[in-house]
Amino acid sequence: MLSAVKTPTITTRVSRELGTAINHGIYQPGTKLPGERLLAESLHVSRSTVRMALEDLERQGRVARSPQRGWFVPSPTVGEPPSTLESFTEMARQRGHTPTAQVLEKAVRSATLDEANRLGIAPGADVLALVRLRGMNSTPICVDRNVLPLTLAHALLDVDLTDASLYESLQAHCAVGIYRSAYSVQAEAANAEMAGLLRIAQGSPVLVGREIAYDRAGAPVLLGLNTYRGDAYRFHADLYRAE
């Protein structure tokens, strides 16, 4: 018996076409979509069909709308769940985004006095300095600066960390697991260099996270300085009143 082939409805087709345009960067995160009338004319469908397609994409979290702005593509956001330690890669994957990482610097140098003190190593000991531009779906989100004792991270010198999770790479190549992180967040204004990397205007708000990550035994593993676009990071915390 021949089974019937289900033909996609016009609304489904329009929804897929708009979703593909978003995936290919034709409509960038944070930008406004053309009006419903213009979309209907370009796609050769009725305005009501476009609206139903947009509502379908809205249910998927692909687009959003506001009375003032109309339809727009929301910027992807990351943020740790309360009291849970997750890497950038894990946060992005759980939200259905594709995490990326471009290596800007990977070098061995001597630790500063402050770095040595916080990492519990000898002053001037060798460390691995790693700077990467992190993104989601080709949108730059964060500049990560990490410093690790070379005695722990030596194996990473021969590892390509492009689009890789640092936490996962440490576990896989160095047998080092991150168990706890002491983390603080502070709002700042983006300087010219940071604005260029994150594709935002100079002076735009950024959130700077500073961390010391520890293994299960309580030994410090890495120092992190993470600068996020202000519109792309959400910080969660569980807060309790003192008894």
List the helices and strands and how they pair.
Blueprint: H1 10-23, H2 36-43, H3 47-59, E1 64-66, E2 70-72, H4 88-94, E3 99-110, H5 113-119, E4 126-136, E5 139-149, H6 150-153, H7 166-174, E6 180-189, H8 192-198, E7 205-214, E8 220-229
Antiparallel strand pairs: 1-2, 3-4, 4-5, 5-8, 6-7, 7-8
Helix pairs in contact: 1-3, 2-3
Walk me through what this model shows:
The protein has 243 residues and is an alpha+beta fold. It has eight helices and eight strands. It has two domains: 10-72, Arc Repressor Mutant, subunit A (Orthogonal Bundle), CATH 1.10.10; 88-229, Chorismate lyase (3-Layer(aba) Sandwich), CATH 3.40.1410.10. The chain has helices spanning 10-23, 36-43, 47-59, 88-94, 113-119, 150-153, 166-174, 192-198; strands at 64-66, 70-72, 99-110, 126-136, 139-149, 180-189, 205-214, 220-229. The strands form two sheets. Strands 3-4-5-8-7-6 form a six-stranded antiparallel β-sheet. A two-stranded antiparallel ribbon has the order 1-2. Helix 1 (10-23) crosses helix 3 and helix 2 (36-43) packs across helix 3 (47-59). The protein starts with 9 loop residues before the first helix and ends in a 14-residue tail after the last strand.
